[in-house]
Amino acid sequence: MKRKTKFAATVLALMLSVSALSACGSSNNNNAGPSNSPSPSASTGTEGEAAKDTITALLPPVSPKYQENFKQMEADFNKLYPNLTLKIEPASWEDMTQKLDTQVNAGSPPDLAFIGSDGISKYAQMGMLLDIKGLVTPEMAADFDEAPLEYMKNGDGLYGMPAYMEVHAIGGNKQMLEQANIDWKKVQQQGWTYEEFREAIKAGVVTENGKTRYGFVFATAGVASKDYLSILVKNAGMPSPFTKDHKYSYTSKNYLEVLKAIRQMIDDGSMPKELSSVDAGKRWNMFLTGQTMITGKGLAVFENSANQNNKKIEANDGSAVADSIAVDYLVLPVPSFAGQEAVSHAVVDGYVAFRGKKEPTEEHKANIVKAAYFLASGQVAATTNADLFAAHITDSAREIAKTMESTRNPDNIAAVEKMLEHAAPARPDIPVELGAKAIKVENEVVIPKLQALLAGEISPEDMYAAVKKAAIDAFGADGVVQE
Fold first, then answer.
1. Which superkingdom, per the lineage (predicted)?
2. Which of 9, 276, 317, 389 has the smallest number of CB atoms closer than 10 Å to its CB?
């Protein structure tokens, strides 16, 4: 059963405490209208006709076919709200952050941007996010599952609407797992320890004709540079960068144990020595061409991508990935470390609301919320999540999805559901300033040192010492876990 009642009631109470929306105030920098402030009577063209407005959105390729639907999404939104225009700017995953940061720093961000919920604290500290909690209607709130909505909060504010709630897992080649005598069904439902996982990937290493098939490959370069470590540490007793009493947790001794494991898997040959240069594209190519038994990170959509490539191989039309093989993709959990309970890395990305240097009009704020809800629910969400093989998190999308054909592997569905039972909870209690400091430590110390560790340039102990020093400098000796 979904737990929506509490959130919906909160929104209703907030709605009752807010005065009726008016058109007074200066227009948003992204508004299509003139920059001068219209009088309340000028907010409509004729009696009963709503004022025209444009809502801008910066959106990456959320799913394989997502960006192909932009024109249809714009047209459907305008049909639903004839006075409103949804203007979508496409971005690649590689340049999404740079584009958004450039616009934010210029004081003219898009009204909506598709980002991870873990990035909310960064932009909230900059004062560029729009708190929409008083603008979300009770009907909108009631449509969502409660857990993913919590991820879009920071403190008392609600800053966006979630598109999906998935887990960062790993993925295996069914045939290779069975050849290595790995009971993948048991692993899907019961998980595995690092020690069990390490033995499994050792068994998956095969050398034939001078070529090596690895047991495990994880993307660690480019946009995936921070994923590997952040996913692993959640399974080592650190579900968040901060403990419940707001101490920075990555100074725990278990953090060092994970760093040691990262080097062990490379040093024993289970992973390639050039792992630091493997980006997301190369990682997936290695999996489809049979160069690794297990790949990471893995999302449910990878099953769909593998299935599509299998069809191309079968059709022999030359459009399949070069030298690829047929693959039955299996969702697998990340192993647990240091005797800790497994905690899945929940992925909640969505449509986050931004504001420019000038305060948007109340009318424009309400229109931003309409656009965010349109993108995060109903037909758009049903289509996107079906393409992603992701679970639906709104009733409206679930209803539409009933008419859509699904080819998902039932074992994978069950595996994802099991991992979601152990997903790390949302942490809206973490103060904005602490979250921003943690991101700074990650970007300036953790990511560069991880790359050096992967390349064999520093030891796990060296990296741990560098992260601990940076953490104490940022949070103080009393603000970090001391063990």
1. Bacteria
2. 317
